Amino acid sequence: MVLVLCILMSAYFIRGITGFGSALISVPLLALSQPLQFAVPLILALDFTASLVLGGTNSKKADWAEIKILLPFGMLGASLGAYALLTLPTTPVLLTLGAFTMFFGFSNIFGLQPEGRLSRAWAVPAGLAGGGAGALFGTGGPPYIMYLTRRLLDKGAVRATFSWLFAMEGGFRLGLFLFAGLLLDPKLHLAYVLGLIPMAIGLYTGNKVHLDMTSAGMLRVVGALLVLSGAMLFLKVAA
Asked: Which of 53, 62, 126, 127 could disulfide-pair with 70, CB 3.0 to 4.6 Å?
């Protein structure tokens, strides 16, 4: 439990700086010692809480037109991802999570960020991928962030829009997980209650330091952590 709380504080420190990425950091690390059926619902519940807090403080900046088109496809993707989480064997899921994590890590390190404004039609694959990856891996942020940063120019609008989108789509996923019995573990309840403290500390301290760091530098730090997390998952499967 101490290890879990330390991972949570680090993950939400990153989210406090960047506005996203808590699940990308925490789920691969938690999966080294915990089953995905524990790690994914825990991070989903904490991310849902964090999104309500961040979204509530920036509601005026949210782009509701983008949310309205992303949300239905995110919910469809979440339904498919929740089914896969319950039915797929653990090893291929862990390998896919490792590859998924390392891909985004290397993208951040080498600055492989495409430029130009996306068509709104890209909301369909972004929503399906974000909802599906969120339910299966607990890491649905990257597809949403990649789409929103190519649609919205203001960083504050991106952060507020993502927070409200995640709050609504994450609430739907919580309902799916509750129906599937994934939220009934007393250990999960304890971890959530205790995790609120490191989550709050991480968000607060991350928000305090984010103005002193360049976006490019922070993305490289996050990228290095993601690559390390993904590599550790591969080592776990190999062992």
From this structure: 127
How many whole angstroms separate alpha carbon 191 and alpha carbon 196? 9
Maximal C-alpha separation, the chain: 49
Q: In 5-105, at which residue ranges do the beta strands (DSSP E only) sit?
A: none
- pTM, 2 dp: 0.73
Residue type, 158: V
| Residue-wise pLDDT tens digits, 94-143 | 788 778 778 877 877 887 666 667 788 989 988 998 888 888 777 777 78
Whether 218 and 15 have beta carbons less than 8 Å apart is answered as: no
Question: 């993601």: which residue's tokens?
Answer: 226
Rounded CA gap, 239 and 236, in Å?
Answer: 5
Residues 6+ apart with CB under 8 A from 179: none
- Residues 198/6, Cβ–Cβ less than 8 Å: yes
Tokens 């789409």, residue? 147
Percentage helix, strand, coil, to 5, in the chain? 85, 0, 15
Which tokens belong to 233? 């998952």
User: What is d(CA 21, CA 203) in angstroms, rounded to the nearest whole number?
Assistant: 12
Give the DSSP per-residue string, 32-44: TTS-HHHHHHHHH
Give residue-wise pLDDT tens across range 184-216.
Answer: 999 999 999 999 999 999 988 887 776 666 666
